[in-house]
Amino acid sequence: MTEASVREFKMPDVGEGLTEAEILKWYVQPGDTVTDGQVVCEVETAKAAVELPIPYDGVVRELHFPEGTTVDVGTSIIAVDVSGGAAPAPVAEPQPEAAEAAAEPKPQGSGRQPVLVGYGVATSSTRRRPRKGPEVPVQQASTAIQTELNGHAPAAPAANVPAPATVPAPAGADRPLAKPPVRKLAKDLGIDLTTVVPTGPDGIITREDVHAAVAAATAAPQATEPAPAPTPAPAAAPASYDTARETRVPVKGVRKATAAAMVGSAFTAPHVTEFVTVDVTRTMKLVEELKQDKEFAGLRVNPLLLIAKALLVAIKRNPEINASWDEAAQEIVVKHYVNLGIAAATPRGLIVPNIKDAHAKTLPQLAESLGELVATAREGRTSPAAMQGGTVTITNVGVFGVDTGTPILNPGESAILAVGAIKLQPWVHKGKVKPRQVTTLALSFDHRLVDGELGSKVLADVAAVLEQPKRLITWA
Fold first, then answer.
1. How far apart are CA 262 and CA 65, in angstroms?
2. CA-based end-to-end distance of the chain
3. Angle formed by the axes of helices 303-317 and 363-378, to 10°?
4. At what angle do helices 281-291 and 303-317 cross, to 10 degrees?
């Protein structure tokens, strides 16, 4: 083995502008043979847990960092001998600190089920999703507005090398040549392989070609910086540790990013919150009717589905609510699409995946998208791209038995709707006091671009649709 035959795989930026990621799990050890596209480790960024594939064939020589280590983007994490010669696996030295951390009891509540706000706790026990086979590529960012806001993981291209321009393939051209992992990556990133200029041998499209196409499509080149030199691997730190009378949990990954984003949102956007209590008895009856409708066979129908549709109708009637504030340009950017965010509580912290182009979906399509979002969040497979590009958000605090709240805006959005618990309450209906299904809605909005009139109209429209769901047809 020569130094020239050893390739160093560096921690990629698996999102947009991330600076670090924590190594959660290694799937390989020194001496193991790896192939191009094989998942070698799982890392947690500030946005999601992501599996990383190795981009070449060879034999693992060294893992530079143990599990539990936070590593800067651009730092080498694994060395692979690509010469083709196998070697016996070296004996891994046990790490007392890591062993003690693994043996240490978890703090109370650490086994909490991931809860998608609005759906409650899953009945099965919490466990890490099973390890994928060696040929399964990374579950990378797929982009809808991530062709508007692409989440991508470039494999550290050479510094200051301009990306090649994309050229459409001539009509009638053969199917582009690319390995399955590269095809999967292109599909997830929304890239048509026929528009990618190949630079690999015999005209094969490589990962770098796909990422170059993404960079050209987004027209947002970023200056590259030299990668920092590898540092000695520290001992793995425990996820939490106990003192005599308290438990301390390090803030990192998703929780750290969420905390920073919420502080930034709270102290940047002037929040206003308005409330309305509404009789949703007819909506609850419609939910039960839709469950029996063959158009919704196999789909999950619940109040959140109709609440989401009600918000979409209100946005259609008041499009200025679906906007963002451009501080640099001092402009209000009104979006002509709705990427509907649904707040989800997970063991890693709060995440807000969104349904791309929710405004264009029929009610059954919206139900299907909500179901997929739920399943993905519960399995811990939500990609960074799925949490980018949101325009407005719903958070259902009612699932916890809470009547209402004053939600903080998701950064970059102008409004967030909180839904309280739906309860049977005495209500004046047709001049008589009767038991009715009632809930309280709260709408927080950015007062820089949403004034009281606009915010009030949106909230009143959502309430009106939920009180009389036939408005889903008359106002659509």
1. 31
2. 68
3. 120
4. 120
Q: How many CB atoms lie within 10 A of CB 10?
A: 19
Whats the size of the chain, residue-wise? 476
152 is catalytic: no
SS3 322: coil
pLDDT tens digits for 455-468? 999 999 999 999 99
Whether 377 and 118 have beta carbons less than 8 Å apart is answered as no
CA atoms within 13 A on the CB side of 333: 13
**Residue in 286, 386, 392 with CA at minimum distance from that of residue 16:** 386
Give the tens place of pLDDT for each residue, 213-246: 777 765 433 433 444 444 444 444 455 555 677 8
* Strand, coil or helix: 244: coil
Helices assigned H by DSSP within 292-362 = 303-317
Give CA–CA dist 103/97, Å, rounded.
Answer: 10
What is d(CA 70, CA 283) in angstroms, rounded to the nearest whole number?
A: 47
Residue with tokens 């290694």: 26
| Mean pLDDT, all residues of the chain | 77
Residue 138 has which token pair? 């990374």
Residues 6+ apart with CB under 8 A from 377: 114, 116, 344, 346, 351, 353
Q: Which of 413, 392, 416, 382 is nearest to 47 (CA)?
A: 382
pLDDT bracket for residue 450 (50, 70, 90): very high
C-alpha separations of 180 from 75, 130, 264 in Å: 27, 22, 41
Q: Are 148 and 389 contacting, i.e. CB atoms less than 8 angstroms apart?
A: yes
On whether the CB atoms of residues 43 and 14 are closer than 8 A, the answer is yes
Question: pLDDT-derived band of residue 137, with 50, 70 and 90 as boundaries?
Answer: very low
Number of H helices, E strands in the chain: 9, 25
Q: Among 64, 152, 271, 447, which one carries the catalytic annotation?
A: 447
Alpha-carbon gap, residue 387 to 377, rounded angstroms: 11
CA 371/CA 377 separation, integer angstroms: 10
Q: Which two tokens stand for residue 311?
A: 């918000």
pLDDT band at 182 (very low <50, low <70, confident <90, very high): confident
Among the listed ranges 132-146, 343-357, 440-454, which one has the minimum average pLDDT value?
132-146
Q: Is 378 exposed, middle or buried (0-12, 13-18, 19+ CB in 10 A)?
A: buried
Residue position matching structure tokens 């209906």: 429
The CA-atom distances, in angstroms, between 45 and each of 12, 457, 476 are 11, 38, 40
* Apex 422 CA angle, 418 and 424, nearest 5: 150
